[in-house]
Structures are given as C-alpha cells and as structure tokens.
Amino acid sequence: MRLVVLGGGESGVGTAILGKKKGYDVFVSDFGKIKENYREILTINGIKWEDEKHSEDLILNADVVMKSPGIPEKAPIVKKLLELNVPVISEIEFAIQFTNAVTIGITGSNGKTTTTLLTYHLLKQGGLNVGLAGNIGKSFAWQVAENKFDYYVLELSSFQLDGIVNYKPHIAIITNLSPDHLDRYNYDYNLYIASKFKITQNQTEDDFLIIDHDDVEINKWLHNHSIKAQIIPFSISSTVEKGGYINEQNISSNINNEQLTMPINELALEGKHNVKNAMAATAVAQLLKIRKQTIRESLSNFQGAEHRLEKVLKIQNVQYVNDSKATNVNATFFALDSMNTPTVWIVGGVDKGNDYDELMSLVREKVKGIVCLGVDNAKLFQTFNNVVDVMVETTSMEEAVKIAQRMAEKGDTVLLSPCCASFDLFENYEDRGRQFKNAVHNL
C-alpha cells in the first residue's frame, strides 16, 4: 500500500511515521520548505521526502493520501488526486484505525483550545491514561505510533474534519459557531457550519454531543438536521434539564442524574466564555465518571492556554494581556467583554472578511485607544476612527507596545487581541504573542 503524505509539518511527519510502522510504502511531499528538524526525523526513519515541489509521478500513484489541514481542497495536486478517485483523508481519519482509544473530539470557532486543555487537565487529574492531540501539541498519528493511551482529547479544526470518512468521537463538543476561515469555504458560512458538524456524522445513540445551547447557529442546524448522538447542552442564559447551567453564582452540571455544583468565582479562568468552556469540560469529566471533588479542584487550579487572555506583567499598575490567539472578531469580542478596566487595544493583521461592527458597543464602552498593528489598517480606521480618542498605526510589535504604554494610565489594561491572522508581519499567532511578551518585558 502506497501512502503519500502532503505537507511535511507536524501532522504530516506524524502520519508518515505511523504509516511506516504499519508497513506502508510512504512518501512525503511538501510544496513549501520542510523544516530542518522534520527533515532529519524523516531521514532517520528512512522515509522518502521532497520539498518545494509536488512530483506527480511520485504522488498520483498513491493508494491513499493524507492531506495536511493547511492545504486547501482547491490545490491543483489535490484536484488531480480527486479526479483519479484516490482517497484524500485527514491525519485523524488515517490514525484512528490503528488505535482502540476512546476519543473526545472538540471543535468550534472559539474556545476550543481552552476547552481541550481544560478537558485534558480534568481527565488527567482524574487518573485516566489520556493523551492530548489534534490541532495542539504532538500530532495524533505520531502518538498512536509511539504511545498507548486509553483516551485522547483532540482539538479538531474544520479543516481536519473536512477529511473525515469514518472517524467518530465517543464524546464531541461544539463550543460555538462564528464566521471564520470563510476564504476556504467559498465565503459560504453554511459550508463552514456543515464542516463543523461532521464531528457528529458517524456518532451513534451511545455517543454524546455537547453543545452551546445559547448559540443561534448551532440550534438552527440541529433544528434542520437529525443526529443520533445524545445531546448535552450547556447554557449561561437558561436552565437546562440535562447538562450545564448557572444557578445563582454557581455552575450546576447535571449528567447521569449526578449533580455537580461549582462556585463561578472559584474557577481558575475569568470571563463568561470560560464559564462555558468549564461547563463543556465538566460534562466530559462527568460522563467519564471522574470524581466530583477532583473536577472541582481541577477547575480551580487550571493554568490557561498561552496566547489566550494570558496575563503577562503589571507595569506601573497597567496590566498587559496577550490574547494573540484571537484571530477573529468573535474571539476578540470575548476578550473585550472580559475587560473591567479602561483598555488600550492592539489590533490588526490579515483580515479574513471581518465585520468589526459587532465590536462597536464594547469598543465604545471599554476602549480608550487603539494601536493598529498590520500592513493594511484602512478598515479598522474606517470603523473606529470616530469612536475612540486616539488611533495610531505601526508595523512593529516593539513600537506598538511602546505606544500603548504611553496611552495607558494607572489602572488600565493593554490588550493584544488582534482579531486577524498574523501572516502579514509574523510567522504565526505564537510568534506574534511571543514578540508581544518580549516587548512588554523590555519596557
């Protein structure tokens, strides 16, 4: 069996290693440059690879192709493969056939990283032999090749879900839906939503789908489509019979007729959206019979995700917050919503078709100044120029932080929540977040 892997990054190399171990004839092809460390790993493992090209004679003869999530369906090589009826699948789909582990699959437009890390933390603290993979950390295929976990918590992007045929998580979570990555879905929001719901397409009556009951789009989709999984809702605005809701100042979670109560002020993470993330993770822990006391302790001692509302430093009584992972309007909405002090907002980057009007009321209420950090800031200026007192443009993180420091007074917050992708000035959102933190430490 010939396995061709398109993309020589984390998921590609992991798939190649698993494929080799399972006796496939493996070839890795990357149209860009493969990083040095990944080249070494492929070479050491005796796996053939090429980069900066796709050689059709070495690719089109595949029995199966694993396409890395970053490569669009529209890529010429992918189109050719599909015309030849060669199966093109995702890493998750390839790897799942080689493990009997129970998987918890987590998707959504925002909150999925935090929910994934939090769920993993709860299950690990509860004593389960659990791995963490997907969009985060070490590739799932790589771990299936090298480790023997009984459970996996997987963060799944819509791109990973697009390449699924038979994969089914025992427990799935859809945190919420908001327009994101529409450039990959012909600017059709419904295609993007359908892609997220692929997470439940193979689930049976014995499986569970945990959803945000307050999310209009999720409810609309469920109203128009039937699914087999047992639905467990969570809500911060209404009481639900089964699932999570707010009762006075507590989270109340009712699963398998077991009621768990947790005071909201004891949660490690602040903000309404994190109450929801905690409800989703708690539901998983309860379904997997983790002790209530362990769940409560884990929710209160959890360390949040890097680059997601991460408190960096307080300098002259100004709090600096790194929310570089906020690459869309919805994520920035959560960030601004959780600010309780006047805020200097650093924003900008590659705009994926953002509608900034949704942020208008929060910006009026909370933001005193805006620092635009992007190559093209015209749309931001158009939207907010008359709303805030000061608005400045820059193309360097160091300068952005210095300008923000000058704008901020005692008791304020400086928030990096870019609302956009990072590729105009940075390698990725991690690079952007690290540069922000370095700049703050250098003040």
From TrEMBL:
This protein's record includes keyword Membrane: no
Ranges of residues in domain Mur ligase central: 106-285
Key words, A-Z: ATP-binding, Cell cycle, Cell division, Cell shape, Cell wall biogenesis/degradation, Cytoplasm, Ligase, Nucleotide-binding, Peptidoglycan synthesis
Binding locations of ATP: G108, S109, N110, G111, K112, T113, T114
EC number: 6.3.2.9
MF terms in GO: UDP-N-acetylmuramoylalanine-D-glutamate ligase activity
Catalytic activity: UDP-N-acetyl-alpha-D-muramoyl-L-alanine + D-glutamate + ATP = UDP-N-acetyl-alpha-D-muramoyl-L-alanyl-D-glutamate + ADP + phosphate + H(+)
Pfam families recorded: Mur_ligase_C (PF02875), Mur_ligase_M (PF08245), MurD_N (PF21377)
Gene3D superfamilies assigned: Mur ligase, C-terminal domain, Mur-like, catalytic domain, NAD(P)-binding Rossmann-like Domain
Domain Mur ligase C-terminal: 307-419
Cited InterPro entries: Mur-like_cat_sf, Mur_ligase_C, Mur_ligase_C_dom_sf, Mur_ligase_cen, MurD
Record's keyword annotation contains Cell membrane: no
PANTHER family: UDP-N-ACETYLMURAMOYLALANINE--D-GLUTAMATE LIGASE
Protein name, UniProt field: UDP-N-acetylmuramoylalanine--D-glutamate ligase
Organism: Flavobacterium chuncheonense
Gene it is expressed from: murD
